[in-house]
Design brief:
The structure holds 2 protein chains of 2 kinds. Chain A is mainly α. In chain A, about 75% of the residues lie in helices and about 0% in strands. Chain A is built from 13 helices and no strands. By secondary structure, chain B is an alpha/beta fold. Chain B has an 8-stranded mixed β-sheet with strand order 6-7-8-3-9-10-13-12, with helices on both faces. In chain B, strands 2-1-4-5 form a 4-stranded antiparallel β-sheet, with helices on one face. The structure holds adenosine-5'-triphosphate and magnesium ion. The site of magnesium ion has 3 residues of chain B, from helix 1. Chain A: It is a multi-pass membrane protein. Chain A: Keywords: Cell membrane, Membrane, Transmembrane, Transmembrane helix, Transport.
Chain lengths: ~325, ~350
């Protein structure tokens, strides 16, 4: 089976999945009822006519299929309608807030992969030794602490006591750090990225270690030692690549479920990201935003799954394309 | 570098000047320090391999054959610990060499083939990558030269169309083919000594015969010495010049193959031979496994005092329960470790 056919099949499957989710989402939101009605019916001085007019304005009239079709057609053009609360195109909000989320998540995933790989290698090489013990226990601790607690402790130490790092927002409201947008932005990223990294690294380290311990016991590793290869080659070339295979799924999940960890981090650090946007939208029943963010989550999950599948094919020759 | 800790190695250097055997193992003890106690997997083992010779090591499952052979390259898995002994190879005690020196010997002077071809090749590297990596590391030749040499070796081990095979991954090869690749990998640098731990046990019977023929042929052509570990008497009958019989971490008897088969001395060796239906058809029949002797080998965690074979031995005398026999020569080149054959003993508590 050719690589192109594999890719096309996967893409078709992904598209079908996204379509399915979009339908379910639309049906669910629809079942909640007319949000204009819900939001305004209690408000004194708002007449039924006004509600009807507003509903028409937001495209809430007409039958279900027509509205679903229209919504689908618009999101294909990256037009998710207008936010009821922000009174701004949802597409714009997704872009601006989405970038802020990526700014935290991508560095955190990258950092935690690097740290977890290094820690996992050290722990697995000295299994049951002192280093192994320290790494495993800190990972367990990091794994069991609630994420927000880590965030709050970081704020307490670095913002409140030491006063060296900002505790909220993506940029300074008044004086930019060293007068530069870039440096100021990076400065604000430190703590939230650290919190996310702690969270991701803990699980990844434990996975990495156990998978490496398992691989290091394999015959082909003994065979590599018996061939006289140096430790660097045996561990990095022969063992690590094999040990990485089981991590791919978890890494894919981290990418796909970015927005699962985003709300907590972005709430703790008042970060203007998609997670915070999502929470606000849900509280205020800003349904175009809810639907927009949900679609973004779906697409990200689907894309992450696709990337994971491709990564498996690239790293593991045993996997047949099909 | 993976290498097991050596806690009390004998520091005396190899006797200079005398051209000794290619490999001499002396008083080797390898113990596993487990949570339940000390497993005496190899507990005072001696054997030698001369240049061009093939030594067969036979014994029931769990007798310490694999641990002993891995220890020759200092590769026994943790928590193994070399407690005593020397492994003198080409004049050097390998147990005292620094890791760097050991890595030079591994794969170049002494190489190994493994029991299970399905698990002993790295699944995510192509045959070519695995072979050339070793060659380039040891010899520093160019990529192309390494590929040429790897192809040459694949031809030598009877693999057709080597250029195509080099691009394949282990899962694309049959079991016999994988074992041939494993053999090619061990022979890349033309080692002086080849360790083969049950090289045919995991293969189909017909393939077993082919692989044994191949090993016999290669040994001749490359004038290589070999340590062949097996529990198949048929295999040693066909392949070995000398045979060492192991039982529960100790050597019972060592002699020329003819002597072992025609005039065995140790009761355990005799029992082994009686448990083998016909040795002359060697490996062409069904696989023959040893433990058809009454009783079970001892638990090495609680090794019995005295001779370890005494509770299964038809000739056991009361002294065998208390006194551990030490190996002694009963004839030139034939040593036995049995009180009933005149071995000196050492009291065990
Ligand atoms: N990792 C380990 N931890 C504890 N004990 C071990 C370990 N590996 C091996 N042993 C013990 O060492 C003894 C010798 O094992 P070894 O694998 O050398 O036997 P063998 O003669 O090769 O048997 P087989 O014919 O089944 O391959 C066994 O009794 C086993 O219990
Ligand atoms: Mg074995």
């Amino acid at each position: 089976m050719g690589a192109l056919r594999f890719l096309l099949r996967r893409l078709a499957f992904s598209a079908a999945l996204i379509l399915g989710v979009s339908f379910i989402l639309f049906a669910l939101i629809n079942a909640i009822g007319n949000p204009i009605q819900i939001l305004l019916s209690e408000t004194p001085g708002v007449s039924e006519e006004m509600i009807a007019t507003l509903s028409r304005y937001y495209g809430l009239d007409g039958n279900f299929i027509d509205r679903y079709g229209a919504w689908l057609w618009s999101i294909v053009h990256f037009d998710f309608g207008t936010s009821i609360i922000y009174n701004q195109p949802v597409g714009e909000l997704l872009e601006v807030y989405g970038l802020e989320t990526l700014k935290l998540q991508l560095p955190a995933i990258l950092l935690s992969t690097l740290i977890a790989t290094a820690a996992g290698v050290i722990a697995a090489m000295r299994q049951h030794g002192w280093a192994d013990f320290s790494i495993v226990s800190s990972a367990m601790l990091g794994h069991s602490l609630p994420g927000f607690l880590v965030g709050i402790v970081l704020i307490l130490i670095f913002s409140y006591w030491l006063g060296v790092l900002p505790s909220y927002g993506a940029y300074s409201t008044r004086n930019l750090m060293m007068g530069s947008m870039v440096i100021d932005g990076l400065w604000h990223m430190v703590l939230p990225v650290a919190m996310l990294t702690v969270f991701n690294t803990a699980t990844l380290t434990l996975l990495m270690r156990s998978s490496l311990v398992d691989v290091l016991r394999q015959d082909y590793i003994t065979a590599a030692w018996a061939s006289g290869l140096p430790a660097r080659r045996v561990v990095l070339h022969h063992a690590l690549r094999n040990a990485f295979i089981p991590q791919l799924t978890y890494l894919g999940t981290l990418f796909g479920l970015m927005l699962g960890t985003a709300p907590v981090t972005e709430t703790v650090f008042t970060w203007p990201g998609l997670g915070a946007l999502y929470i606000t939208a849900i509280h205020q029943l800003d349904y175009p935003v809810i639907m927009g963010v949900t679609m973004v989550i779906t697409v990200m999950l689907v894309v992450a799954t696709l990337l994971t599948d491709i990564a498996y094919v690239v790293i593991d020759p045993r996997i047949r394309l099909g | 570098m993976r290498s097991i800790p050596v806690s009390a190695p004998d520091p005396s250097p190899a006797k200079a000047g005398q051209p000794g055997p290619l490999l001499a193992v002396e008083g080797l003890k390898v113990h596993f320090h487990t949570r339940d106690g000390v497993v005496r997997a190899v507990d005072g083992v001696d054997f030698q391999v001369g240049t061009g010779q093939t030594l067969g090591i036979v014994g029931e499952s769990g007798s310490g054959k694999t641990v002993a052979s891995l220890t020759l390259l200092r590769l026994a898995p943790p928590p193994a610990r070399i407690v005593a002994g020397r492994v003198v190879f080409e004049g050097e005690n390998l147990l005292l060499q620094p890791d760097k020196r050991l890595a030079e010997i591994r794969g170049r002077r002494m190489a190994m083939i493994f029991q299970n071809p399905a698990t002993s090749l790295n699944p995510i590297l192509s045959v070519g990558q695995q072979l050339t990596e070793i060659l380039r590391w040891h010899t520093g030749v160019s990529r192309q030269a390494a590929l040429d040499r790897a192809a040459e070796l694949l031809t030598l081990v009877g693999i057709s169309d080597p250029a195509a095979r080099l691009r394949q991954y282990p899962h694309e090869l049959s079991g016999g083919m994988k074992q041939r690749v494993g053999i090619a990998r061990a022979l890349l640098c033309e080692p002086a000594l080849l360790l083969a731990d049950e090289p045919t046990t995991a293969l189909d019977v017909t393939i077993q015969a082919q692989i044994l023929d191949l090993l016999a042929d290669l040994r001749q052509r490359l004038s290589m010495s070999m340590v062949l570990v097996t529990h198949d008497m048929g295999v040693v009958a066909r392949m070995a010049d000398r045979i060492t019989v192991m039982y529960a971490g100790r050597v019972c008897e060592t002699a020329d193959a003819d002597t072992i088969f025609n005039a065995p001395q140790h009761p355990y060796t005799r029992a082994l031979l009686e448990s083998v239906p016909r040795i002359d058809h060697s490996y062409s029949g069904a696989r023959r496994v040893l433990p058809s002797i009454a009783g079970r080998p001892p638990d090495l965690l609680h090794a019995p005092p005295g001779c370890r074979f005494h509770d299964r031995c038809p000739e056991a005398a009361p002294e065998c329960r208390r006194t551990m026999p030490r190996e002694h020569l009963v004839a030139p080149g034939h040593s036995v470790s049995c009180l009933r054959r005149g071995s000196p003993g050492e009291e065990t508590p």
